[in-house]
């Protein structure tokens, strides 16, 4: 019977290992969830003090130097957003309009400085 006992022991150990792994995974998820809650609380504390400094309140030097980073970061975000808006804005300007003309032979819009029409190939007057 010793051989069967060994097999049973092996099976029991394997089951235990699997259960432990499942339990460890569950606990990891729980710890991560708790960490997220903690981060949210810390962020709230940060927002509380940032709001005070936004209102002109002067806090201790260390906090004020961290706040400089907040101000710099906000400025960068604003600049990036302005850049995005500039990219979205319509590109056609009156200047560009003035630099084009219509070919008198075929009527196609071509560059004002073009010597020949790109559409019909006729020399421009
Ligand atoms: Zn033409």
Keywords:
125 residues; mainly alpha; 3 domains; two-stranded antiparallel ribbon; 3 helices; 69% helix; elongated; binds zinc ion
What's this model, at a glance?
The chain is mainly α and 125 residues long. It has 3 helices and 2 strands.
Beta fraction: under 5%
Count the strands?
2
Taken together, the total number of domains comes to: 3
Which ions, cofactors or small ligands are bound in this entry?
zinc ion
Could you tell me the radius of gyration in angstroms?
A: 36 Å
Helical element count?
A: 3
Percent helix? 55-70%
General shape:
elongated
Mean pLDDT: 90
Strand order, largest beta sheet: 1-2
Unreliable stretches: none
Could you describe the largest sheet, including whether it forms a barrel? 2 strands, antiparallel
Please provide the ordered H/E string of secondary-structure elements.
HHHEE
Write up this protein.
The protein is mainly alpha-helical. The protein has 3 domains: 1-57; 59-89; 93-125, no CATH class. The chain contains 3 helices and 2 strands; from the N terminus they run αααββ. The longest helix is centred in the N-terminal third of the chain and has 53 residues, at 2-54. The chain is elongated and about 110 Å long. Zinc ion (ZN) is lined by residues 103, 105-106, 108, 117, 119-120, 122.
SSE blueprint and pairings:
Blueprint: H1 2-54, H2 61-88, H3 94-98, E1 100-102, E2 109-111
Antiparallel strand pairs: 1-2
Zinc ion is lined by residues 103, 105-106, 108, 117, 119-120, 122.
């Amino acid at each position: 019977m010793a051989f069967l006992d060994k097999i049973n022991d092996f099976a029991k150990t394997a089951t235990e290992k699997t259960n432990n792994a499942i339990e460890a995974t569950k606990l990891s998820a729980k710890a991560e969830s708790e960490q997220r809650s903690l981060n949210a609380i810390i962020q709230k504390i940060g927002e509380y003090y940032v709001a005070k400094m936004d209102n002109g309140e002067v806090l201790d030097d260390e906090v004020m130097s961290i706040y400089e980073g907040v101000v710099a970061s906000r400025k960068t975000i604003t600049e990036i957003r302005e850049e995005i808006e500039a990219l979205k804005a319509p590109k056609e300007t009156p200047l560009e309009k003035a630099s084009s003309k219509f070919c008198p032979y075929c009527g196609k819009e071509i560059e004002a400085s073009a010597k020949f029409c790109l559409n019909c190939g006729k020399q421009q007057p």
